């Protein structure tokens, strides 16, 4: 048996799990083409699974391989059962860590999580290992068992074990053991990222019978405080006032409204709190969410208290933007939802490419006086432009603009910002659209999801245009009113 085949099997087989997760991540994010254009992210996932795979091979796979030899298990099904066992064992640590969260989930959810998240990539790696070197190893075992000379058999056994362990003396047992904490930390991060990216239950788009032939619906919105507040119906009750928010990854409602609707609330959910990271929230399922003439079925809502100053009862988040083309006419205070099949644009607006962060939040590349970055499009932010701490530091914008606090502030679901520093940006370029003397707020608090963006584009800029948001084809249109 060639030692090179064993080395190749150990090196290549863990990458099968990484390739699987690259594809799975792409599918979970609605086949976002930007994910496949990010070589750093792809290489990062592949390396992550290579590290996990090497440790799994060293601590679990190789001892299991030796045990198979002693027991005479030398077939592909035996290897697959071994891969299945390794996949389950690898999942035990994150399962214990997230026990308080996962116990709130159904048994079916947890079974699917372990199968999709750990067992399937492990089985793929096992199959790759088998076809590269597994058959050759087991064939050698069979020949050894047929030998009658004890001395020769013992000699061959030692040779095979040396081949099996060929990589691990190079790595060194102490290095593998010392790497366990790092690898488990990476596994935890991956699991946390997967839970954070978990999509709500897929909705079924239906329309009321008498409007079944319509491809769009329009409704007016309350533009007070430069926000987009619309009336919606939930489970046949309402109307209720909800903010149409491109910055919300999920629908949200108040506990009071959930209680009024008689909804069952589960614990264990997490709400994106911007610079504050995440906050705990409840979770509930709504049978019907009706917006205009369209109805979305089986919608997931997060439940959290709202500040007393909020004049609405919830947020409409990414699920609606993913299923409809949204046209915002700020001059007429009118929002139009159109099915992708029925959408035709014939205006003369400027088309700007967007990408979806985690498949949910729209962001666009823009420039602040020549400093470029990815800015979140946030219709739930009624300011003009916000810059976040990481972008501010990288481009030394505090010393460049010397912003001053003017007593203004901002409020989110979980925090209130007082006396935000503000300054006028000389030029803000969004594709071919150029804005000058843009009043900009400087958010200096670090951390949380804000660190993923250079800043946020609020309704103070969006309201200057008629806006079309097309998540399906990844673009935004800004059209001068007139």
Quickly list its features:
24 strands, Cathepsin D, subunit A, domain 1, six-stranded antiparallel sheet, six-stranded mixed β-barrel, 482 residues, alpha+beta, 3 domains
In short:
This protein has 482 residues and is of the alpha+beta class.
Instruction: State the separation between the terminal residues, measured CA to CA.
Output: 77 Å
- Count of structural domains: 3
Structural class: alpha+beta
Gross morphology is elongated
Major beta sheet, strand line-up: 3-4-9-5-8-7
Q: What do you see in this structure?
A:
This protein has helices at 3-28, 33-36, 39-71, 76-97, 99-102, 107-146, 150-164, 167-171, 173-196, 255-260, 318-323, 389-394, 397-401, 459-462, and strands spanning 204-207, 216-220, 229-234, 237-244, 251-253, 266-272, 278-291, 294-303, 314-316, 325-329, 334-338, 350-353, 355-357, 361-368, 371-377, 385-388, 404-405, 410-411, 416-417, 421-430, 433-443, 455-457, 466-470, 475-479. The chain is α+β, with helices and mostly antiparallel strands. It has three domains: 3-196, no CATH class; 204-330, Acid Proteases (Cathepsin D, subunit A, domain 1); 350-479, Acid Proteases (Cathepsin D, subunit A, domain 1, Beta Barrel), CATH 2.40.70. The longest helix is centred in the first third of the chain and has 40 residues, at 107-146.
């Amino acid at each position: 048996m060639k030692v090179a085949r064993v080395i190749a099997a150990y090196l290549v087989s863990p990458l099968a799990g990484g390739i699987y997760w690259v594809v799975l991540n792409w599918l979970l994010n609605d086949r976002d083409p930007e994910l496949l254009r990010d070589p750093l992210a792809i290489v990062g996932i592949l390396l992550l699974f290579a590290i996990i795979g090497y440790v799994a091979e060293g601590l679990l796979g190789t001892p299991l391989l030796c045990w198979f030899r002693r027991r005479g298990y030398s077939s592909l099904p035996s290897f697959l059962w071994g891969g299945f066992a390794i996949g389950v064992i690898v999942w035990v640590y994150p399962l214990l860590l997230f026990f308080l969260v996962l116990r709130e989930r159904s048994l079916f959810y947890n079974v699917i999580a372990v199968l999709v998240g750990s067992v399937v990539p492990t089985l793929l790696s096992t199959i790759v290992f088998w076809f590269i070197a597994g058959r050759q190893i087991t064939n050698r075992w069979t020949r050894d068992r047929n030998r009658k000379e004890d001395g020769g058999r013992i000699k061959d056994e030692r040779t095979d074990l040396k081949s099996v362990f060929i990589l691990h003396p190079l790595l060194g047992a102490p290095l593998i053991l010392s790497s366990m904490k790092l690898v488990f930390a990476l596994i935890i991060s991956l699991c946390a990222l997967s839970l954070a990216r978990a999509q709500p239950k897929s909705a079924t788009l239906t329309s009321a019978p008498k409007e079944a032939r319509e491809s769009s619906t329009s409704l007016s919105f309350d533009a007070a405080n430069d926000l987009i507040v619309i009336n919606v119906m939930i489970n046949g009750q309402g109307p209720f006032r909800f903010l149409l928010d491109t910055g919300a990854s999920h629908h949200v409602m108040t506990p009071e409204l959930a209680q009024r609707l008689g909804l069952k609330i589960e614990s264990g959910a997490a709400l994106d709190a911007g610079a504050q990271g995440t906050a705990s929230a409840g979770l509930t399922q709504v049978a019907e969410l009706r917006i205009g003439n369209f109805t979305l079925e089986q919608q997931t809502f997060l439940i959290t208290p709202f500040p007393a100053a909020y004049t609405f009862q919830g947020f409409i988040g990414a699920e609606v933007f993913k299923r409809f083309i949204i046209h915002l006419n700020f001059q007429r205070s009118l929002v139009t939802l159109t099915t992708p099949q029925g959408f035709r644009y014939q205006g003369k607006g400027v088309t700007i490419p967007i990408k979806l962060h985690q498949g949910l939040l729209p962001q666009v590349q823009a420039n602040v006086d020549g400093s470029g970055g990815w800015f979140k499009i946030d219709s739930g932010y009624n300011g003009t432009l916000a810059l976040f701490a990481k972008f501010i530091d990288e481009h030394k914008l505090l010393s460049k603009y010397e912003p001053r606090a003017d007593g203004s502030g901002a409020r989110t679901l979980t925090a209130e910002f007082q006396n935000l520093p503000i300054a006028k940006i000389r030029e803000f370029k969004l594709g071919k659209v150029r804005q000058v003397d843009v009043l900009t707020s400087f958010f200096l608090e670090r951390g949380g999801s804000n660190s993923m963006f250079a800043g946020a584009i609020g309704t103070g800029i969006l309201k200057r245009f008629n806006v079309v948001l097309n998540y399906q084809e990844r673009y935004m249109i800004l059209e001068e009113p007139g």
